[in-house]
Design brief:
- The longest helix has 18 residues, at about 1-20.
- This protein has one helix at about 1-20, and strands at about 25-30, 35-40, 45-50, 50-55, 55, 65-70, 75-80, 85-90, 100, 110-115, 120-125, 135-140, 145-150, 155-160, 165-170, 190-195, 200, 210-215, 220-225, 230-235, 240-245, 255-260, 265, 270-275, 280-285, 285, 305-310, 320-324.
- It starts with a helix and ends with a strand.
- The chain contains one helix and 28 strands.
- It is about 5% helix and about 40% strand.
- Strands 1-2-3-5 form a four-stranded antiparallel sheet, with no helix packed on it. Strands 6-7-8-9 form a four-stranded antiparallel sheet, with no helix packed on it. A four-stranded antiparallel sheet has the order 10-11-12-13, with no helix packed on it.
- The chain is mainly beta and about 325 residues long.
- The relative contact order is 0.11.
Length: about 325
């Protein structure tokens, strides 16, 4: 009995750090002075900036993605699949009914807010044909007709805190998960001056791919595969100084967000804080607890034509099949 108790204690001690890690598969963070909004199970969740218990912000059957917290922290713009289409919506950080801002039949993907918090910037292919390039538009939080930005084409980007520059990826990728891609689709971050229409680019050494730009003051933070894993880098637009801030080797950094004094990024299924001054980072412990009834164990009526990859057990008494 004593040995059994000792074994149970050792096992609890061994797994307790794993249990304390929090919920995994937290994606697309957006950070403000007080909150982090992220995507989990295709819904939006909000949590304190230092982690803890998350509160579900949306519950639609369609996916809610690409959240961006407004400059004053009171609203969240996001891309929602409501009413059979993919459009721009806003919702209070405290929750409530989302308000629809765009109505085009094509997909409108949220990118950022204007610094005054009066308009939401989004990406759309509504005028991209015959080349199918996407471009940036903005729409008022009060609704109305979207307006095109001066940038002729672009895929993902954010505007500087003073509203004078836009850092963006010019093109989408046909295979964004192709790690260490060095082909023609791999581009630096383009930094466009909204007044002069001049642009600069982030420096590269090996035609590596730069993605997901965000701003703190006059510095652009982005993801780079220069060291053969996606990590956070920075480029000061005034001094042209570049700097590597994270050094992950096993799992890529996937998404990054910024507020005035902190970055939050996704890596290895968790969200991490990053101090842009010291370069110190740490994993956040966040718990997203919901009913998520689609994930519960259940019986399903499976047609024989849907079964694949049959295998017999060693005794021949049982068989296993793959479905979906």
């Amino acid at each position: 009995m004593k040995n059994l108790l000792l074994f149970c204690f050792v096992m609890l001690w061994a797994v307790s750090p794993l249990m304390a890690q929090g919920t995994m598969l937290l994606r697309e963070p957006s950070v403000s002075q007080e909150h982090i909004v992220f995507v989990h199970a295709n819904d939006l969740w909000v949590v304190d900036r230092n982690g803890g218990e998350a509160r579900r912000l949306t519950t639609s059957q369609g996916a809610e993605t690409s959240p961006r917290i407004s400059p004053d922290g009171s609203m969240v713009a996001f891309t929602g699949q409501y009413d059979g289409n993919t459009d721009v919506y806003v919702v209070s950080i405290d929750g409530g009914a989302p308000v629809r801002l765009t109505w085009h039949p094509g997909a409108d993907i949220v990118q950022d807010w204007t610094p005054d918090g009066q308009r939401v910037i989004f990406q759309s292919a509504r005028e991209g044909y015959p080349t199918a390039n996407t471009s940036f538009y903005s729409v008022s939080v009060e609704g109305g007709t979207p307006e095109a930005l001066a940038i002729p084409f672009g895929f993902a980007g954010s505007i500087s805190p003073d509203g004078r520059k836009m850092a963006y990826q010019p093109y989408r990728f046909w295979d964004p998960e192709w790690r260490n891609y060095r082909g023609g689709q791999a581009q630096p971050i383009w930094i466009f001056d909204m007044e002069s229409h001049d642009f600069t680019q982030t420096p590269r050494e090996d035609n590596e791919r730069h993605t997901a730009p965000v701003w703190i003051e006059n510095t652009v933070y982005y993801l780079s595969e220069r060291d053969f894993a996606n990590n956070v880098w920075s480029f000061n637009t005034e001094t042209a100084e570049e700097r590597q801030l994270t050094f992950h080797t096993q799992f890529d950094v996937k998404n990054v967000s910024a507020t005035t004094d902190m970055l939050v990024y996704e890596q290895g299924g968790y969200l991490h804080q990053l101090d842009p001054v010291t370069g110190e980072s740490g994993q956040l412990e966040i718990h997203a607890r919901g009913d998520l009834n689609w994930a519960r164990t259940r019986y399903s009526d499976v047609a024989a034509s849907q079964l694949t990859n049959a295998r017999l057990s060693p005794t021949g008494q049982r068989a296993v099949f793959e479905h979906r």
